[in-house]
Every structure is written in structure tokens, then in C-alpha cells.
Amino acid sequence: MTTPHSGPTASPVVPGPGEQPAAAPPPGEPESAPAPRRDAEASRAAILRAARYLLARHAHADITLKAVADRAGVSAPLILKYFGNKDALFARVMSFESDADALLDAPLEELGRHMVRHLLEGQTRRGADPVLRIVFAPLQGEQGETLRANFRAQVSERLAGRLSGQDAGLRAELAVSTLLGLGVMYGIARGPHLRATTVDDIVDRYAPAVQAQLAP
Questions:
Q1: What is the fold of 97-214?
Q2: N or C: which end of the chain has fewer CB within 10 A?
Q3: What contacts 24+ positions apart, CB below 8 Å, involve 36-42?
Q4: CA gap 194, 102 in Å, rounded
Q5: Rounded Cα distance, 216 and 214, in Å
């Protein structure tokens, strides 16, 4: 006696590179609908965040793709798929281009307040301000000079290009220095008085010192 055919048999799902196989449901429980694949842009962003975090704490030569993958919650092959290799990944991490876009995104007359607020909100909402990774350039050996060159060209020289009057380059570097000093005390030294003060209060007190360097 033959058993009625109930339809085509589904092929087993094989996880792709960087994906983990789905866990089987507990006995007696129905299978849930398959989870959607992780969005590619979200995965790339998580990888870049993880690489930035590690670069701020370790020398470039000591950071492995596995360490980046573990922190980002992906696999090392997925990093290779998106970025090609470790050098290409860290070339992206060592660029300040997109960070400068956000840091300098305000009219010149309001820029000091915007820069201070952006830095502080990076610390309080995102746990770090990516611009501050320039502070760790001495840890990075030859890669540190790449960080320095990128920072000068993409942050301080870009800011100088927006300033009028004499000594625009000097004033831009002084404004950025003033901002980085606050970032170090707030995010790295974690000064308790600063941390206990509201962002609005710090902006009111500190922004004029940054803005003073921006005015001609």
C-alpha cells in the first residue's frame, strides 16, 4: 500500500557566509517563521563601530578580524565579503570624512555650539565620538601617521576653509583643540563634575570658548 504524496519536500536551508544556522525549536513547539536576513548596511555599520572601538584600545597590528567580528556579532568571512581585507576595513575606520560632515554641519555663527553638543551627545547617546580616535594615534605606529594626516585634512583644514579673516588655519586648530580637550575630559578621563552636569549647561559654558576661535 502506498502512502499518498503530500507535495514536494523542502530542501534544507544552508546558511550563507557570515550567517549562523537557525536553532531548532524546543520539542512540542511549532517552528517560527524564519528571521529576516540581517540588513547589509546594518552589518557594515556594526563592523565599522566594532573596528573603531578596538582601534581606540589596541594597536592596529594587534587587532584581528576575529576580534572585530566577535564584537560586531558577525563572522570574519562576512567582513571579508564587505570590505575585502583588514587593511581596507581600517582604511575606512581611519577616515574622518563622514564624522567631519556631522561635526561641521551648522552655520558658522552657530558652529561652536553645534560642535560642543555633537561631541557630548556622541558620548552620552552613542558611547563615543568617533573624532576622538585621533587621541590614540600614538598607539598605532605607522598607521598613526595615517590617522594624523586624515584628521588634519578632513577636520581641521576643512574647518579652516570655512573661516574668513587672518590666521584661519591657526584658529581652526585652536577651535578643534579646545573641543578635543573637552572630549578627553568628558569621555576618557570621565571627570565626575562634568559627567554630573547636563549637556545643555556644558554647551552654554563651553561653546563660547570654541566659537571665539571661529570669529574673524
A1: Tetracycline Repressor; domain 2 (1.10.357)
A2: N
A3: 38/74, 40/82
A4: 23
A5: 6
- pLDDT tens-digit readout, 72-93: 999 999 999 999 999 899 888 8
Report yes or no on whether pTM surpasses 0.85: no
**pLDDT tens track for 130-147:** 688 888 888 778 888 888
What is the reported pLDDT for 171?
97
Q: What does 80-128 look like in DSSP terms, one character per residue? A: HHHHSSHHHHHHHHT--HHHHHHHT-S-GGGHHHHHHHHHHHHHHHSS-
CB-based contact 68:56 (threshold 8 Å): no
Q: What angle do CA 96, 97, 98 make, to 5 degrees?
A: 100
Looking at CATH, the fold of the domain delimited by 40-93 is given as Arc Repressor Mutant, subunit A (1.10.10)
Question: Cell 520539542, residue?
Answer: 27
pLDDT of residue 7 exceeding 60, the answer is no
- Return the axis-axis angle of helices 76-83 and 40-55, rounded to nearest 10°: 100
**Cβ-Cβ contacts under 8 Å for 3 (sequence gap 6 or more):** none
Specify whether the CB–CB gap between 54 and 68 falls below 8 A. Answer: yes
